[in-house]
Design brief:
CATH architecture of the largest domain: 3-Layer(bba) Sandwich
Strand content: 15-25%
Radius of gyration: 21 Å
Shape: globular
Helix content: 25-40%
CATH class of the largest domain: Alpha Beta
Distance between the termini: 37 Å
CATH superfamily of the largest domain: FAD/NAD(P)-binding domain
Order of helices and strands: EHEEHEHEHEEHEEEEEHEEEEEHEEEEHH
CATH topology of the largest domain: FAD/NAD(P)-binding domain
Number of domains: 2
Structural class: alpha+beta
Largest sheet: 8 strands, mixed
Number of strands: 21
């Protein structure tokens, strides 16, 4: 079996990894730039299973288990220091309380914290403006580049052919099968095609008459100078402020600040927003006053490849029998990487996903109107 995967980000490489582990010998991954150049190496590196939909909770619980297992298999590094969802209003604490009950139904040990408990966990928080919080102790963060390189080198060592700077111009099909990809470096024929190219998936799939509702939405994280022992949690989220400002601290001590801002879809990766600095930093300085003393030293732009219901699109793409998708992760592609690899591999080799709930996330839901609701998109 010859498999061509379009997109050498975390999803594409984990799909390749699982396929070769299952005995598929001829796997090729192409990318229009370099591996990881899209959303993968532009994210915050955080992970959690404390979502608000059964689909996300079940799949991310599995994905975290896989990430933990991969510490031995690939030498992956990660820390489970928890997510702290901060509420400024008492009514939000009650919403969190209901979410905790929902999480417990799925074995996710989130819990409510009162103001004193929040102060003990995060002494730098302005406790006078908060009403409480929800804490997920199984959530955490990882060094993105280091883990991605380890996966990439293992995939290469297993015989996967990775072709950077190979742009897919179009796919060509005959009847109910895709037959080849026309690329900037020549045609590539295969028996199975997987499109895992983030927001670029839509352009590629339109060339064979398949439309998927994925749009790249820009994100603008700010990075500070190292500031030792600033945060104990992996991610602190100001839930009640519009755009949910959030902050994490990387392995080098730098703080990374972000917030959802209204922005132009599909904006250039080189576009800049000077106003992002104040919009992102101001509410976080109010929540964590020590930030006023910390210098911002750089800024980058990344993307959320968004779908209308903020869930990924997985699985086969009718009317083609040999065309699959893994895209539209809406900010959660890195954390879902391991489960994505196993899901698409099981769809290809067994004809169905190894976790049933993934059937709710095929492209068919947009035709039937059975979208899946997710309220906690941040991080």
């Amino acid at each position: 079996m010859r498999v061509l995967i379009v997109g050498a980000g975390i999803s594409g490489l984990f799909i390749a990894y699982e396929l070769v582990k299952k005995g598929v010998k001829q796997v090729t991954v192409v990318d229009e730039s370099y591996p990881g150049s899209g959303a993968t190496l532009r994210n915050l590196g955080c992970f959690r299973s404390s979502f608000t939909s059964p689909e996300h909770v079940v799949l991310m619980k599995e994905s975290i288990s896989e990430w933990l297992r991969l510490r031995d298999e690939l030498g992956i590094k990660l820390e489970q220091r928890g997510y702290l969802w901060v509420a400024r209003r008492p009514e939000t604490v009650e919403v969190f309380r209901r979410l905790v009950g929902f999480h417990h139904d799925y074995g996710i040990p989130t819990r409510i914290m009162d103001v004193d408990e929040v102060r003990e966990l995060e002494p730098g928080i302005n406790y006078r403006i908060i009403a409480g919080a929800m804490f997920d102790p199984t959530a955490g963060r990882m060094p993105i580049l280091e883990n991605f390189i380890k996966l990439y080198l293992r995939v290469k060592s297993l015989g996967v052919r990775v072709l950077p700077h190979t742009r897919v111009l179009k796919l060509e099909g005959r009847g109910d099968r895709v037959t080849k990809a026309v690329t900037s470096r020549g045609d590539i024929e295969a028996d199975v095609f997987v499109v895992a190219a983030g927001g670029g998936s839509r352009r590629i799939l339109k060339t064979v008459g398949v439309d998927v509702p994925i749009v790249d939405i820009p994100r603008h994280p700010l990075v500070t100078e190292p500031y030792l022992e600033a945060l104990r949690s992996a991610l602190v989220i100001d839930w009640d402020t519009p755009g949910s400002p959030h902050i994490t601290q990387n392995e080098h001590g730098s703080l990374i600040l972000a917030r959802d801002l209204e922005d132009t879809p599909e904006a250039s990766i080189y576009s800049q927003r000077v106003d992002a600095f104040s919009h992102i930093a101001k509410p976080l300085i109010e929540l964590l006053p020590f930030l006023a003393k910390v210098n911002i030293v750089r800024y980058w732009m990344g993307y959320y490849d968004m779908t209308p219901d903020h869930h990924p699109i997985y699985g086969p793409l009718p009317p083609y029998e040999n065309l699959y998708i893994a895209a539209g992760f809406s900010g959660h592609g890195m954390m879902m990487g391991p489960v994505t690899g196993k899901l698409i591999t099981s769809w290809i080799l067994d004809g169905k996903p190894y976790i049933d709930v993934a059937n709710n996330l095929t492209v068919e839901r947009f035709k039937t109107g059975r979208l899946v609701k997710e309220l906690a998109v941040i991080g």
